[in-house]
Specification:
This is ABC transporter permease. The protein is mainly α and about 270 residues long. The protein has twelve helices and no strands. The chain has one domain. It is globular and about 60 Å long.
Length: about 270
């Protein structure tokens, strides 16, 4: 009995002296995960998965192919930094938003939502980190594309006697970069709305395309399409020739094709069991 009492007193005294406060049953206050750290983790998730890595490889190959095609087929007078950068935009505009889709659906398809939302219970905060990291990845790809285009522009000057103008069309480059970020966010929004990678990809690629086809075939839809067809409004943005009338049209189309699925996705993921 004396041995039990001495052991009990020793344990009790050690527990009472513990700074964590376990003896009183009160857990210490734990600070939230910094938002920038969340963004870094989400960015790493987009690059660590096999699907994300191979999709980036595919984007790099497609961009390289388009730039090389322009480099070897365009005449010397039209070979400039802007023309080379513009030629690579199609591949990344088409494929990079799919990384946004997978960034949103990976928590549910890979069944990591339980661990993620246990470490950070504020799900909307996690989803906002996905938006920031996916948009940052789009900008990184855009910068790499500009650097590769600059290297080939220099090669054109040295080897082909090309015009090689270094005067970038900043309206075109800025519009393309903004369109890329918006499309990546649209991919994240569709991923959050459907929470299934194949369904979200089909919806992201199919629904806006179907609407565009309908507006081309049904004359009565052509007027509303100027405000509701995101493909049309983003095409104007990528030309770098936006006017005062074009910005409201872009905003309305983004509310429909980005704002609505994103709001539904944030609401759905906040209430779904992991």
């Amino acid at each position: 009995m004396s041995t039990y009492r001495s052991t009990h007193q020793a344990v009790g005294s050690d527990t009472d002296r513990s700074p964590s406060g376990l003896a009183t049953g009160i857990r210490p206050a734990v600070g939230g995960i910094p938002f920038l750290r969340l963004c870094a983790v989400e960015l790493r998730k987009q690059l660590d998965t096999r699907a994300g890595l191979w999709l980036l490889v595919a984007i790099a190959l497609v961009n390289t192919g388009f730039i090389a095609l322009t480099f070897f087929t365009a005449d010397a007078a039209s070979l400039t930094w802007t023309s080379l950068a513009e030629s690579a935009s199609l591949g990344q505009l088409l494929l990079l938003p799919l990384i946004g889709v997978m960034a949103a659906t990976s928590e549910w398809s890979a069944r990591t939502a339980l661990s993620t939302f246990t470490l950070e219970p504020r799900r909307t905060r996690v989803n906002l980190a996905k938006l920031v990291s996916a948009g940052s990845l789009g900008l990184i790809v855009m910068v790499v594309t500009l650097l590769v285009s600059a290297a080939l522009n220099l090669a054109g000057i040295l080897w082909q006697g090309a015009d090689g103008s270094w005067a970038l069309n900043w309206g075109l480059v800025g519009g393309t970069a903004l369109a890329l970020v918006l499309l990546v966010w649209q991919g994240v929004a569709f991923g959050l709305a459907f929470l299934s990678t194949p369904v979200a990809i089909v919806a992201y690629l199919g629904l806006p395309t179907l609407w565009t086809v309908l507006t081309l075939t049904i004359e009565s839809l052509r007027g509303p399409a100027e405000w509701l067809d995101v493909n049309t409004t983003l095409s104007v943005l990528m030309t770098g020739a936006m006017t005062a009338d074009d910005w409201p049209r872009l905003a309305v189309s983004l509310v429909v094709w980005l704002g609505v699925p994103l709001a539904f996705g944030l609401w759905r993921t906040a209430r779904r069991e992991p």
